[in-house]
Amino acid sequence: MSIRLPEELEVEVYRCFRCGYCRAQCPIFKVKQNESWNTRGRMILIRSLIEGNLNASSSVLDRLYCCSLCKACETSCPAVVRLSDVYERVREGLVELKLGPLERHQRIARDILAEGNPFRQPRAERSSSYQCKGPREAEALFFVGCVSAYRKPSIVQSVEKILTSTETDYTTLGAQELCCGSVLMRTGQTRAAEKLARQNTRMFKELGVQKILTVCPGCYLTLKVDYPKLVKDFPFEVVHISEFLSQLLEIGKLQLTKQVGLKVTYHDPCHIGRRFNLYEPPRTVLSSIPGLKLVEMSRNRENAQCCGAGGGVKSAFSDTALKIGVSRMEEAAQTKADLLVTSCPFCCVNLGDASRQAQLLPVSDLTEIVAEAI
Amino acid sequence: MSESLLTRRLEQIVGAENISTEHVDLLCYSRDASENVGMPDVVVWPSETRQVSEIVKLANELRVPLTPRGAGTCLSGGPVPARGGILLVLTRMKNILEIDIANLQVLVECGVVWQDLNNALALYKLFLPPDPASGEACTIGGCVAECSGGVRAVKYGTFRDWALGLQVVLPNGEVIETGAKTRKCVSGYDLTRLFIGSEGTLGVITRVRLRIFPLPQYRLVMTAYFDSLESAGKAIFHVMTSDLIPSAAELMDRRTVEAVSKYMNMKFPECAALAIFEFDGSSLGEVKRRMRQARKLCEREKATRIDLSETKEESDRLWRARKSSGPALATLKPSSLHEDATVPTSRIPEMLMRIEQIAQKHNLLIPTFGHVGDGNLHPIILYDERIPDEVKRAEEATADIFRVTTELGGTLSGEHGIGLSKAPYFSMEHTNPEIEVMRKIKTALDPNNILNPGKIWVGP
After folding, report:
1. Residue B327 within a domain
2. Is B179:B164 a contact under the CB 8 Å cutoff?
3. At CB < 8 Å, which residues of chain B contact A?
4. What is the pLDDT along chain B (460 residues), one digit of tens a residue?
5. Same domain flag for B210 and B222
6. What is the C-alpha to C-alpha distance for residues B248 and A346, in angstroms, rounded to an integer?
7. Pick from B180, B214, B248: which residue ends a domain?
């Protein structure tokens, strides 16, 4: 069975002429060192799938799903092929043909539809760490996201401390918040994601908020780019916390007064970095913390290496995600920083796991260190 | 020979985790950056010379073809296993063994990536000058096996000019060291140069000793726009025959400029051709003087506009645009042939004209860009592989380009190698006795025709 792509994306596949420059960028290739796990290899496989010369075997699916959609390959692609768009559409096509996604991703979809989160945690426990139990009327909605809610409650507490101290009129959806559907979108399970988008959007509208604040770049990308396509009418301003904090600093509402005597390096999350060029806001915020010294890794901003977790990789290929995480933490260790700061709860989880395994420097979210400095 | 015997023996040498016969892997290793395809039977990743030697011995014993491969960025089919067999992927042998600052040389394993080496050298303010466009990905072993060049070859030459010695695994598995640790060496035949550019047909290059050079402190870039291709060609020729010694002298024709500006989202002034010059050195005043002189020569050829890149970012952007010429052009039509025909510098203006005539004659688009300063052109023949008549015309145009190239005293390949792509045209450049010498060398070293068979010339 051959896979069909819309004409505009099929052309992209044929524009890849296998120069191989992506070898220098792909984080999966970095740990696998095998061309079939590199962008060029995936494009060869996709071309064969389109032409009907290849069966979507489990080996093929593994190659197509073991990509964090970090877009690093796109920074080196001289033909500027829309590689991550192709990957996402191919995954969607595989799901439509009932050839994908991977078993692990199917289970995540079932869990999300059952409990509203991908971790098989009870729905009611989502807001157990929240200060604001919500929902209530407010100017802004803090969309917490599953990773923060269930895996990184300290991030939720930090965000709420910041919002309270800056007298931001905010609410949460409390236990009613549903997974944004990011992992479903990235693994091609668009129909399931659409259900979540509709339900979440209905709640956003009922609240009457205009601004939605996310701490997770995955939620940010999904709400900002995918929701308007999935639900059509999506009249909300989606803001990432790093942007928001830098705006608060600018207007003088955020006062960072406590000394944080640390040397810190910053890891750019792919979904706000290469996707939206949010490179400077988090750095501006970090540089405003008294006593904090910011040092850069050799690969930063658009050249930053992915943490390895996104795109469904950590759930289905945890070893690979961890290895990539370790290699990123090794880059961080070379800066001799005391702490790695990122602006993504999911990067925090994976880089934190990697750091513990390799016994390297600790990892914090931007909001955690900001909360410390208030 | 059963495949299981081969894979079992290979497993004994490198371990089961370092070989693959999985269809997905074979498929992904069946291509390079050229139009050629060849499926290997097994992909092997050795990690040391001893393993390479044993694998080659095994291939010889079982009479299985063996194709060495680096990063697979080749543009002529060199690492494509034309006759199947073992594909030997050397990218895991990637140690920089020695940076010898006192003697200005390095010793590296074949799988070291060009960019990684230059990053390591930059810490000592040193560099390896030949700079293939694929530098971020390609390996030093591949560069040597294909005798790669690049933009700066116009001043610094190709890998041939920088390799001092090689460690080579011969087709019988023996390991030899060629050359010497000295700049000069006339001790016997120049085996180093025999293996450089031999495209993996004579031996597997496992280590390379290279000269390195102090990194110039200043690099300034100048772009000159012209309203005819010929005047751009002439301007470059004048700069090359002066004492200005540019470290790059590149040309892009109108279609290349248009394609690049579209794909890189960069704006260029309207022109029929543009020339990019780079001047490097350690005295800013001297570099600027040479650039001013070049500017005058371009003005004499009626350049319509001349820009100087003030910052490194601007220069980098320009080089990135230039290096994306091939891929950008490749997107204009479904299929493209990337040639690297090279003529003596004095024949450049004529060659550019002749390529235009060939394009007209065959009713094809053949945009041209390239390292014109050293006569190395990259005419890109664009066609649609789904239209038989266009395929035929593209083949005829290719033959015509090579015919003109040899007529003007040039060569089929300046830096990409002959591989599979240009093998059918090889006899246009070389007489039978010449080819016979090459065949005899091949037979003497590789009597069973194990190493990368099917390359360079057509036939056994």
Report:
1. no
2. yes
3. 20, 22-25, 27-33, 45, 71-73, 91-92, 113, 115, 134, 136-138, 263-264, 320, 323-324, 326-328, 330-331, 334, 336
4. 456 899 999 999 999 999 999 999 999 999 999 989 999 999 999 999 999 999 999 999 999 999 999 999 999 999 999 999 999 999 999 999 999 999 999 999 999 999 999 999 999 999 999 999 899 999 999 999 999 999 999 999 999 999 999 999 999 999 999 999 999 999 999 999 999 999 999 999 999 999 999 999 999 999 999 999 989 999 999 999 999 999 999 999 999 999 988 888 888 999 999 999 999 999 999 999 999 999 999 999 999 999 998 788 888 888 888 888 887 888 788 788 888 999 999 899 899 999 999 999 999 999 999 999 999 999 999 998 889 999 999 999 999 999 999 999 999 999 999 999 999 999 999 999 999 999 999 999 999 999 999 999 987 6
5. no
6. 46
7. B214
A85 inside domain: yes
In a domain? residue A1: no
Domain-terminating residue out of A78, A96, A114: A96
Residue A2 lies in a domain: no
* Model pTM score: 0.94
Residue B179 lies in a domain: yes
Tokens representing B366 are 């053949």
Extended beta strands in B212-315, E state: 213-214, 218-226, 248-253, 273-281, 305-309
Query: Residue B459 falls within a domain, yes or no?
Result: no
In which residue are the tokens 């934190």 written? A352
Cβ(A323)–Cβ(A31) below 8 Å: yes
Tell me the backbone φ, ψ of residue A298, rounded to 5 degrees. -60, -35
Runs of H (alpha helix) within chain A: 7-15, 27-32, 39-50, 58-65, 72-76, 83-96, 103-115, 146, 153-165, 182-186, 190-207, 217-221, 227-231, 241-250, 280-287, 313-316, 318-334, 345-358, 366-373
* SS3 state at B211: strand
Q: What is the CATH number of the domain that holds B251?
A: 3.30.70.2190
Domain hosting A14: range is: 7-96
Give the domain range for residue B30: 3-89
Domain annotation covers residue A361 = yes
Same domain, residue pair A176 and A55: no
Q: How many CB atoms lie within 10 A of CB A127?
A: 20
Residues from chain B that touch A33, judged by Cβ atoms under 8 A, are 45, 91-92
- Residue where a domain stops, chosen among A96, A124, A140: A96
Domain at B177, CATH number:
3.30.465.10
Which residues of chain A are within 8 Å of residue B45 when distances are taken between CB atoms? 33-34
Domain shared by A55 and A158, yes or no: no
CB contact under 8 A, B137 and A57: no
Q: How many domains does chain B have?
A: 4
Angle at alpha carbon of residue B393, lines to B390 and B396, rounded to 5°: 155
